[in-house]
Amino acid sequence: MAATKIDPFSARSSFDTGSGSATLYRLRALDDAGVTNTARLPYCLRTILEALLRTCDDYEVTEQDVRNLATWEAARPAAVEVPFKPSRVVLQDFTGVPCVVDLAAMRAAMQRLGGDANKINPLVPVDLVIDHSVQVDYFGTADALAKNVDIEFGRNAERYAFLRWGQQAFENFRVVPPAIGIVHQVNLEFLAGGVFLRPDPAGGSTPVAVPDTPEVVGFELTGQLPAGATATDLVLTVTEALRKEGVVGKFVEFFGAGLAGMTLADRATIANMAPEYGATMGFFPVDDETLAYMKLTGRSAEQVELVER
After folding, report:
1. What tens digit of pLDDT does each residue of 89-137 get?
2. Fewer Cβ neighbours under 10 Å: the N or C end of the chain?
């Protein structure tokens, strides 16, 4: 049975939206309680801290877990585990297929033990984007895409049939088919909502422990791209600089006046290169460019307002 949520810092509050009342957990409650000054924390850690406040149950996420992250020090990151409970998960097919195999194996085991196999489902929404199977056999013609897609389905028929079964069999699981786009693009354009509004249940997903309180590296962007330089030049330059710095296993947060001249697509490309420069995460805080992109990609006015607030 899931533990009951608690609110040790009186962080829970509500506010009115165009579609009704919504609940939020205020980081300022930690300031009011004398725990920390949240304004000094990097935005990437504030995001995780909000999740800890929201899911605190004194069992999977404890009051001490919240305090450990809230009192983070840049010079001395604490060697303590940090629970991480995301609201949703995005997978690509290269790593996502083994996850579905594991779920199927768990269902088979549950059935052998005489239990209800249908109870085995992801506890948070999961989207799997098929984007790692593309090979270019035809190019330079109007029908090249259609031909490549046909060949792709033939080569991967068994795997795609398995994923289709998974989408039908499991709750909270969707598959984005081939030829739609690459995972970070599909996530930004179609899947990401920015803010989740939902009932506030007592349960939640089991947390994944981040081994140590993460070290955060700030990357300041100034000025603007010179004439003739492209977004690709920027991405490669940033990646090279971070490789030289050494950011393996760290969070990288980008900031500075140079962000004003960067599109969200370019930011997403840099963040998506985190495995190339060795970081656990590349993070760009939400700003006006984020809101403009949400409007551009058809998000509702209510959704944009929620993110802005």
Report:
1. 888 888 889 999 999 999 999 999 999 999 999 988 999 998 877 788 9
2. N
